[in-house]
């Protein structure tokens, strides 16, 4: 069999060490030797002796889900082998979390992560009920975190002199030492007169970076179980 499809550009690379790597811009490969975690339904292929177990609400502190339904449906992958993960052909990235780091990320952008990372769902400070119940996933510990993003993300530095305002439907995540609050950009009267409609943004202050996708979120499709 010949053709462009079978060129080295598309043939998967052999595993050189256990752990996570970017196979291509749309897919993450994980060479499993023990245990890791991934979003339910994100596995597109695997080989080797691997077992997939769905994790539901209440199984340990790292797998709990928010009562609003904004939780992250996860599965544990155990054994020895290789697995490939993707989410609707979105762009894939790997973030390295070190001890003392804390990375807050929207659950919709989480693809997979090392079992050495701890995971919690927290309310975004300052959002309250007015923010539509903003719940994000907070990762700590040491390990790799695989993320997806529709389009190429914007990584925007935040400094004490320059806070950043982001659309709550576009934000992917931010680093530990940033403070969050809601910011109203225009009055209700302005909106009635034909304003932009961008009434409320999430304001981030302090020292760090915020990651934003280049579009607002599409309507959420219910997870099939």
Q: Class by helix and strand content? A: mainly beta
Order of helices and strands: EEEEEEEEEEEEEEHEE
Q: Number of helical segments?
A: 1
**What's the total number of strands?**
16
Residue ranges: pLDDT <50 for 5 or more in a row?
57-70, 128-133, 219-225
Task: Describe the oligomeric state of these chains in a short phrase.
Answer: single chain
Largest beta sheet, briefly? 7 strands, antiparallel
Strand content: over 45%
Level of helix content? Answer: under 10%
Distance between the termini: 38 Å
Net shape:
globular
Mean pLDDT: 82
- The rounded Rg comes to 19 Å
What's the helix and strand layout?
Blueprint: E1 19-24, E2 27-39, E3 43-55, E4 74-85, E5 91-97, E6 102-105, E7 110-114, E8 117-123, E9 135-141, E10 143-149, E11 154-158, E12 164-167, E13 171-175, E14 178-184, H1 188-192, E15 200-206, E16 208-212
Antiparallel strand pairs: 1-2, 2-4, 2-7, 3-4, 5-10, 6-9, 6-13, 7-10, 8-9, 11-16, 12-15, 13-16, 14-15
General description of the model:
Helix content is 2%, strand content 51%. The chain contains one helix and 16 strands. The protein is mostly beta strands and 225 residues long. The relative contact order is 0.17. Strand 1 (19-24) and strand 2 form a beta hairpin. The strands form three sheets. Strands 1, 2, 3, 4, 5, 7 and 10 form a seven-stranded antiparallel sheet that branches. Strands 8-9-6-13-16-11 form a six-stranded antiparallel sheet, with no helix packed on it. The protein is globular and about 60 Å long.
